[in-house]
Amino acid sequence: MMADDKGEATEVTKSPAGSKLESLSREDLIKFVKKQLLLLQRERTKAEDLQKKLTSALEVTGNKTDDTDEVQELKNQLQTLTDERDEAINAYNTVQCSQEASAIRIQELEKQCLVLEEENVLLQQRFVKLESKNKELIEQLECMEMKDASLKSSLQCMQEEQAQLAKQNKELEVVKSNQEALIADLENSLREIGSLEEEHEILKHKLALAENCIEELKAALKNKEVDALQESSTEEQLMCKVEELRKHSENLFTENEQLKIDLASKIAELSKIRRHAEVETLSEHLTEKQEKQISKEGVSEVSDSESLISELRVQLQIALDQLKELSSQKEAMKDFWSKNKQKNQTLAVQMKMCQNSSPEECCARQDIHNDDTNSKDESAEDLVKMAELKANLQLTIVERQKLFEELAHLREVHETAAFELAELQQEHDSLKTEADQLRGQLGEWEHLMDMVKRERDSLATELETTESHEDHFRQELELIMNSMHEALAERDSLQDEVFRMTEKDGVWQLLVHRSLMDEITQMKSMTTGIIAERDRLQAELDSIMAAKGESSVKAEVLACKLQDMQTAFDNLEREKESTTVLLQLAQEKESQMIEELAASQEKIHSLETSLQEKQNELNELHREQGEIRQREEAAKAQVKTTLEQLEDRKNYTIELEEQVFELSNSLTEAKKRCGNLREQFEAAMQDKSESIEFSHEIEDLHSQKAELEQQLEKKMAEFLTLQKELSDKTKLVEQVEERCTELVKDLEKERKQIAIEREGLKEGEAEIIAKFQELQQELGERHQHLEKGEGHTKGAAAADDRHAVGHQAGNGVQDGKF
């Protein structure tokens, strides 16, 4: 029975140990082995005590051989004591196992608490960083709101200015329509001049015919010298006619002089009109530029723009007054041209009448040749007058040619002015499109500001929730730590009570054992509750970490958006500077623009050289990046080798675990041997030599146990060194990877910056070239437009002259007939 009870006890101690060894980790296994060695040492001390008692009992039995009954009682007491001791040992083993399990769990909980505390510290640090970032974001948002308010105020000012400019544009359109009407009138006058030129050619032809008739008349007059006296009366009439023709020629000469003066004044007026048109277009251009500058430079330049607008309005009023004066002068010119046209028509009629009447007069003179001898003197005077008229006509032809040349020059000037007007209109349209684009960009910025505000509010709420969660978790962690400290205190008290139990009687041991078992069950329930609470807290902590990660991602997104907005504002500043430069370029002359273009080309060349240098630096950085990647690959290979070494070490630790299992088996065997020693203890009471052998065996077992402990300590030291090496190498690999990522990010930032600068330079160069081409095109169009206007004015003037000459000629013939 005793052997069976002991075998059951060993089985009880063996089965939980086997299941325990399968579920324990390496460190816990080492601790378990150490505790088992302590138990063996305690059992060894107990065996030595029993051996001493046995020797004392043997001495007592040697002295008292006759007291067999007392010996039997002592044996029975010894048997009961051994049974009680076995039960106490079993109970102690169970209590020790439960205490070890609770101690292991408590250690795990302590580790987890330490990890949670570290994570809590990290979370607090992150929270502080997030608070600082949040403050920065709030400051940036306040700055953006201030900028938004300033932009809104500038937008309102721009809208008001735009309304005023729209009114001014309407007024300018009215003025432009008046100018177009004036230009149409000028073209009509030029057409009339062309018709007058045609009539002048006809008059030239008729003049040639008249000269032929005059030659015939000269021949006839030679024959009519005899009849000069008879024709004295007719000669007086012809003298009157010649005098009238001379007066008409003088009038024509004065009218031509007046036409010259009028044409010169007209040229001056056209130049004034062209200048005023340029002023008007420049005023439009300047107002548009000012609108753009106001949208970019802000409220600070509104006063300057208003002063410029007032000056331009004054100039515009002056131009309108001058246009009114020109319209009145135009009406006066129309009246003058109508009068000249009537005079020319009368002259043409008189010339026709002279041409038609010259052969009739020849016939009449031939008929009256025998009657009138005085006509010879009259015909001679008539020839003199005709020569004077011919000279006057030649002078008028030369003067008309000069006037045509001046009109051609005026046409060229008009065409150049029209070309400049077209170019300025194109610039006006482009500035309007740019203003619309800026309004769209402002709308986008307002939308972005609203998005940033909403995201800021959401981040603030999320931060408040995370703060409340963190406070709650801190309180729960404090409660867990307090409960863990209480559990540790109870564990220590239980250990003290267990050690005290070994010194008391068996009954007290059973009572204490029961109470300990109850407390152990309570401890188990408490530890299970603590583990469940810890799992729950870990899950909540994971959720909080995920929420914090999302909030950090949102904060990074906001930072990126703010950076994009900052770059957009920088781009706007650059655009503002470029617009000011373009305004200055538009106000300068073509030569200055060519010089600035050359300077900009030199600047572009220098920037291209700097860009090439940047490209070389980028290539150098790429090369360094390749070297870093090679180093990283070498480090990865080294890490791979270390991982292989770690795998070998893991295999070695597995072998150590197997050895530990073997040690545990040897411990169980030692326990079995102890049981056998206990069974053989009674026989040892009779045979002292066998007890000595058992003591030697126990000493051998203790020596083996010490050797195994030394081996375990060596293996553990090797394992710890391997872990340290692995952690150092993993840290080194992480540092290398972080360095590589930082270098790659820096390279990407530099490349993007270089690309932005390059695009800005290309855009600036393209804008300068486009402005230069537009100015050239504007000058060409103005030249063409002026040439067309001069052609029309020349045609109209020639037509008027022809009509006036024909009218005067008709009047002269009628007077002669009369």
UniProtKB/TrEMBL annotation:
<feature type="coiled-coil region">
    <location>
        <begin position="555"/>
        <end position="764"/>
    </location>
</feature>
<feature type="compositionally biased region" description="Basic and acidic residues">
    <location>
        <begin position="779"/>
        <end position="804"/>
    </location>
</feature>
<feature type="coiled-coil region">
    <location>
        <begin position="30"/>
        <end position="262"/>
    </location>
</feature>
<feature type="region of interest" description="Disordered">
    <location>
        <begin position="779"/>
        <end position="818"/>
    </location>
</feature>
<feature type="compositionally biased region" description="Basic and acidic residues">
    <location>
        <begin position="1"/>
        <end position="11"/>
    </location>
</feature>
<feature type="coiled-coil region">
    <location>
        <begin position="386"/>
        <end position="441"/>
    </location>
</feature>
<feature type="coiled-coil region">
    <location>
        <begin position="477"/>
        <end position="504"/>
    </location>
</feature>
<protein>
    <submittedName>
        <fullName>Uncharacterized protein</fullName>
    </submittedName>
</protein>
<keyword id="KW-0175">Coiled coil</keyword>
<feature type="region of interest" description="Disordered">
    <location>
        <begin position="1"/>
        <end position="20"/>
    </location>
</feature>
